[in-house]
Amino acid sequence: MRLLVVAMLAVGCTPTTAETTSPDAAAVVTIGDCKVPAALAQTDRTGGQCGGAARAALSCTSSTRSVLCLSDDVQQCPTGDPNIGAGPWTCQNFCGPSEFGILCGAILLAPQADNIDPPPGCRAVAPTPAGTTFYCCGCGA
User: Fold this and answer.
1) In sequence order, which ranges of 71-128 are alpha helices (DSSP H)?
2) Is 82 exposed, middle or buried (0-12, 13-18, 19+ CB in 10 A)?
3) What is the SS3 assignment for 82?
4) Kind and range of the H or E run holding 39
5) What distance lies between CA 117 and its chain's CA centroid?
6) Nearest to residue 69, comparing CAs of 47, 32, 46, 94?
């Protein structure tokens, strides 16, 4: 079985609400029941910075492959990516009910951003050979 790492950041992982608590406060978005810094919800990870926040960091397997993804559906990776293919899939969510998933790091030799380290309170759950790492972070991290 081969491992396919998929960073699904745009499909199915769009934050639902944006809010600020004061003019000087950093914007936050709501993902599931979590308040997440808006910077972690951004999907442009060109330099490897942390982002793509979603309710779950999943490891999904079928009879022929395994994939890692971020998803707002805790039971499946977002659909629409031809690399994932048809199931059936069995998925495990690395994040607990009071956590959200993010992806940090750049794939292989892509230029690295300065802010590729996850925020405090995040734990690495799935480092990949490609140079990215999936993390689970506590709500409000």
Assistant:
1) none
2) exposed
3) coil
4) helix 38-41
5) 14
6) 94
d(CA 94, CA 126): 8
Q: Find, among 6, 13, 7, the residue nearest to 100 by Cα.
A: 13
Instruction: Output the pTM of the full model.
Output: 0.74
Three-state DSSP at 127 gives: strand
The SS3 of residue 84 is: coil
Angle at CA of residue 22, ends 135 and 54, nearest 5°? 20
Q: What is the pLDDT of residues 4-32, one digit of tens each?
A: 444 333 333 334 443 434 343 468 889 88
- Each residue's pLDDT tens digit, 39-76: 888 877 766 788 899 999 999 988 888 889 999 988 88
